[in-house]
Amino acid sequence: MAGMGPPPKNPAQRARRNATFAMTTLPMEGRKGRAPAWPLIPDVVLTARRQMAADKVELLEYELTEAESMQKRAALERKLDVARERLAILEAQLREQRKLEALLWKDLWKLPQAVQWERLSWLRDVAQYVRFKVMAELGDMDSAKEARQWSDRLGLSPMSMLRLRWQIAEDETAPRRAARPATPATSTTKQPAGPDPYAALRAV
Fold first, then answer.
1. What helix, strand, coil percent values describe the chain, rounded to 5?
2. pTM metric for this prediction
3. Cα 158 from Cα 44, distance rounded (Å)
4. CA 76 to chain centre
5. Longest Cα pair distance anywhere in the chain, in angstroms?
6. Model confidence pLDDT, tens digit, residues 54-84
7. Which helix (H) or strand (E) holds 173?
8. Cα(90)–Cα(110) distance, rounded to whole angstroms?
9. What is the pLDDT of residues 150-185, one digit of tens each?
């Protein structure tokens, strides 16, 4: 009828406002067992830079032995000091990167999320996050941005876990422990006797 609005929808076609989505429950105690083998090769960029720096040091050392004038030797020595410093920094970066990657990789595979990573075969994804995260800790700001994006993909924040439909199992024993009445302490110390009500009476 005109003016009465559209007819009501069939109940079977109505959207359920209280519809819930299935969640994957992850164990609160985390993943058990050893971490998988590290799947990535060493950092190609840092490795190449380190090799170039080593070649530069070797070249300058050779030129220094061939230099004849004191002025040229002094200039080469200054360049050699800079090249050696650069090489030392790159070697330290590679060394620290390998150490930090191993530590972070081991820690991540103890998390509850690691159970789902293993089910989904996300080994290389987790390793890529580890690499960017470690590079960010070593001072690379571009890697810090990448690490945040990979963190969201892997469910390492509450919001990203919600998007992935992951939830961590609750500790079912915690409410019972909280509701359990405290046992009063039993004291074995004898309490001092109160005042004698007959102390004020005198014998007649």
1. 55, 5, 40
2. 0.69
3. 33
4. 45
5. 130
6. 999 999 999 999 988 999 999 999 999 999 9
7. helix 173-179
8. 31
9. 999 999 999 999 999 999 998 655 555 555 655 554
